[in-house]
Amino acid sequence: MERRNKDMRSINLPVRTTGHAAPVTHVAWHRTRPWLATASYDGTAAVWEVTDGALRPTRRLRHRRLVNCTAWNPVRHDVLATASADKTVAVWDLTDDGAAPWRVLARHTDDVNSVAWLPDGERLVCVSQDGSATLWHTGDGTLLGTLVSHTAHCMAVDVNSDGLVATAGEDGLVCVVAPDATGTSAGARRRYATSVEGCAWSRSGRLLAVARDDGFVDVLDQDLSVVLSAWVGHAATRSVAWSSDDSMLLVGAYDGHVHFLRALDGTRVTRYEDARAWPRSVAAGPSAVAVGSFGGSPLLLDAAHGGRIGAAPAATHGVNAMTVFEDRLALGCDSGLLLELDLASATSSDPRARATRIAQGPVLSLAAHGRDLYAGTYAGDVIVRRPDRTGVLALDAPVTSLTAHGGGAVAGTYGGELVGIDRSATAVERQPHAHRGSIKALAALDATAFVSAATDQRLTAGVVGRRDDLWRHGNLVNAVATLDAELVATASRDHTVRVGRVEHRSGAWRVGREWTLLGADESVKAVGLLGHADAPTVLAGSYDFTLRAWSPGPHGNSLTDGEILAEFDQAVSCVCRIDRTTAAVAGWDGRLLLVRAEHNRNRVIARLDIESLADLGAPA
Q1: Which windows of the sequence hold WD repeats (predicted)?
Q2: What single-letter DSSP state applies at residue 311?
Q3: Domains with residue ranges and CATH for the chain
Q4: H or E element, residue 144
Q5: Of the residues 72, 279, 430, 540, which has the fewest C-beta atoms closer than 10 A?
Q6: DSSP secondary structure string, 480-498?
Q7: Across residues 109-115, what is the average pLDDT?
């Protein structure tokens, strides 16, 4: 058993001199200089000098956890604010060559998703996963007050030149408030029936654009009356920005496109498609548009024509999904690679693996049925790879989850849809609104039924056309695992693992005995079950970078925090059962562990490096 560390641990990925070591989450142009700030899952923000489309990193700023946002100060042009999942906001003076920030605002109660400066360059608005939008004075770090309270995660904030603050959240609420010197405020509200995760004021400050999860972008006035509503596509719109002259709306959507719309009437002028783009953030400069990416650097697009400028981002190989496929462990990566590890050699000094490029962008989900492999991509495709041929089914949203079912597979999408898929890559059954939110995980119960877990906090069971609620968490559900059609375990952002016995009775799935396991006081990302339903071992990986194990027994042991089997340098991304006693565990730090649980003893039996596995076979 490895050392237990109660403190919040820092991301410790290898530093790349050419860019980030993980996907780019946010982009922000400097107002007057050819500088671009980026934030990344690698726990750093970077400042890039941009010359003729070439990106040169000049400064690296480190947080303890992933960085969600950057914001340039409107008055002091060498000052940058960064927001992080370590629950802090840091203010950096770039004229200081030191590694420490000039100011760190007091620890928030949850991850900080976005920040924006007021025009005075002294006050900063911070929005958090806890739903709050708070106002701070950065000169002395004073909390001035709470401006808005959302009932779900507050995702975005922007401030116009008059000091009006706009916030948007997963509860569908959009607010505009005018802070006074003490932080109190009054303003307008509009509530949508769908999550709103992006907002941006026009350069004039008169209009506010909001990005909606139902595929629309709305333009609102300062009173939040609708000026324009433009349908962009079936996929969720995630980010929006205005061109430098306010003539164009630049919309990042989860169909992998950046859409260029005329601000006057919403007409699409052009769009850029790149599976490496992660358009959760889009920023417009005078001659170039910057876009987040699944690689180690941002994408740059020509502001007038939408074509790419400069080199493509370097690949990163974060593992998002695993499944056992014949005698191999298949891993789906951010780079679009499918890594196949020969299980017979996995514990040897010479593991055998092959790497095949099956997508240009991230592989988010995997499932296997016999000799057929199903892969779901961020671009919205389900790739069905059979021994004799390969087929592709195009869906309208990222395919966030897959499980084998009924001789084929079932896909769950970012938009909450369940889709039954046969071997010929044909959709044979659909349930458009199975969940009100992204379906994060699926797992087979038996030959006829499966469970689904989603951001709407629900766990359900059944078939595509009929779902029975099993339980709810206090926050979104990240992962689900099953064992012997009797036991189900879920991992949630509410910091718990729930385990329950289920049965099919009177035509419906029901829950009998259930219990809750408490581990790290952070979001639990991945879960797995080993052993037998009457004596299981529960594995759970968390955003505190630990892998924990419990053996609950017949009465559970909710108040124990589990045995720490391993510590990673980033969050644990997924757990996959190989057989009754063995599971594979992948972390976003590039490590893959094989864990064995037998005779009341849990141990790590192999440690592998995912980058090395990718190098073993040349991608096709």
Answers
A1: 17-58, 60-94, 105-146
A2: P
A3: 24-309 (2.130.10.10), 319-616 (2.130.10.10)
A4: strand 142-149
A5: 430
A6: EEEETTTEEEEEETTSEEE
A7: 96
